[in-house]
Amino acid sequence: MMLPSTRVRFSFSAHSDVGLERKINEDSFMAQAPVFLVADGMGGHAHGDVASQTVARVFDEHIERGAPSTPERILDAIHSSNDAVRDLSAVDDYGTAVSGTTLAGVAFVDAGDDVGFHWMAFNIGDSRVYTWDGRTLAQLSVDHSAVQEMVDAGLITAETAEQHPERNVITRAIGADEFVDADVWLLPASGRHSFLVCSDGLTKELGNAEIAGLLAAHDEPPETGRSIAQVLVDAALAHGGHDNVTVVFVESVLGDRETDGHNPDDHGPEDSLNRVHA
């Protein structure tokens, strides 16, 4: 992506699987610069798959491809997604009859002349955004879930939360309320950044240490030809695959167009993925 005085290069992969126990994949994702996101339709609710597809469609309609977005446009896409998913439910629907989906992702944005280019991370629900620096996997987003609230209140430990009977209860979702409250972070986009965005089908099966180990191993040239997203999804399936599992992994390098040594027309093998719905 060419910028006024520099350029940013993206490489990314995305993969989704229905899992070993579900009949329908209610996950959707978008992987096309400047937006990379995962939406996980609420299991047991009406039209969970359509709800997540709707989010991907609305973002695709709102965000120009191949150019930096803005924080305002991303927020507008989030709120428009909420309106569109709410339109899937009838006025008198309640409980599991209400359509809903989680949403987590990152977007490359121009935050203004005085602020510059940033990565904007956003989250609603319990799909997650992680940062990866080649050694450490750090969860950037905070789950909007009943068990996370218990952890925050000191009632249970994070380890207990992983096995708690209410671990699937989320407290925020796209489509659940008239107004959606998204958590948002802005990270300066200088140098190199790597993000992992995933549905809870990954994190239910693999701990952070296991995910980090797979990411670190994949820093070496892969012999199988599988992308890191597919490696992570396959690992979740090997651990049980009890839910739909979706992974988007994106790396960016912001550098001067005169000195970064890359041809602007060159694209890595994963750049052809564009936006995919599973």
TrEMBL record:
Region feature (Disordered): 256-278
GO molecular-function terms, A-Z: protein serine/threonine phosphatase activity
InterPro entries per the UniProt record, alphabetical: PP2C, PPM-type-like_dom_sf, PPM-type_phosphatase-like_dom
Occurrences of domain PPM-type phosphatase (ranges): 11-252
Cross-referenced Gene3D superfamilies: PPM-type phosphatase domain (3.60.40.10)
PANTHER family in alphabetical order: PROTEIN PHOSPHATASE 1L (PTHR13832:SF827), PROTEIN PHOSPHATASE 2C (PTHR13832)
Protein name, as recorded: Serine/threonine-protein phosphatase
Originating organism: Cryobacterium fucosi
Lineage: Bacteria, Bacillati, Actinomycetota, Actinomycetes, Micrococcales
